[in-house]
Write a structure and sequence with these properties.
Layout: E1 3-4, H1 5-11, H2 17-25, E2 29-31, E3 34-35, E4 42-43, E5 49-51, E6 54-55, E7 63-68, E8 97-98, E9 106-113, H3 116-123, E10 131-138, H4 143-151, E11 154-155, E12 158-159, E13 164-171, E14 176-183, H5 190-197, E15 202-210, E16 213-214, E17 223-225, H6 228-237
Parallel strand pairs: 9-15
Antiparallel strand pairs: 1-4, 2-3, 2-5, 5-6, 7-9, 7-17, 8-9, 10-14, 10-15, 11-12, 13-14, 15-16
Length: about 240
Amino acid sequence: MAERLQKIMAKAGVASRRKSEEIILAGRVKVNGQVVTELGTKIKVSDEVQVDGLPINKEAPVYYLLYKPRRIITSVSDEKNRKTVLDFFEDVEQRIYPVGRLDYDTSGLLLMTNDGDLDNRLTHPKYEVEKTYVAKVEGIPTNDELKQLRLGVKINGKKTAPAKTNVLETDNGKKTAVVQLTIHEGKNHEVKNMFKAIGHPVKKLKRESFAFLNLKGLQPGDYRPLKKFEVEKLYEMTEKR
């Protein structure tokens, strides 16, 4: 059975489906020795695919949940030689990569996989997968300010999707608050920009959950493989749209 080239690449762990499309358009992919730049090209499993001159491996999919510490790069490599999330997976043979990203100074739950199809589902905004963050912010937000987040705020001219908010803690002496925020978008610096838009910059940020997954039993730097039923549930959640 023939499948689209970018889907085959994603399944092989080359990159997400959208990133694979960029790689194809850049002329970096050969099929049976011929450069292919047309998106949607269908190939067979028996066809030989090379990316940057190297054959892709059609390896079995793997899935991990990492408790990312702060001051770690969410990338497969870093030109400044800083520590990346892949450094926690030196014993994993498969070519895995992060699902979405967390900022350098943000800690919390990060999924790692070589399954480009699931990566695409979990990061595409149409599937509305919820992520919950806990933010320590400057000042103590009023209910009216938090209501702006619940209704959506404008960032760079675009309104954010409605969020769920919950004040967990306030410190009148230090003039700070700890606020739980649940969103289903994943734009760059989204949470930080949302709090900045209501006048309460983020001092510290942690992602506590991704869909139904949480950090229970893990310390920063720990990871665990996802259970089979967890992977199936993630697929089921993103089948409905």
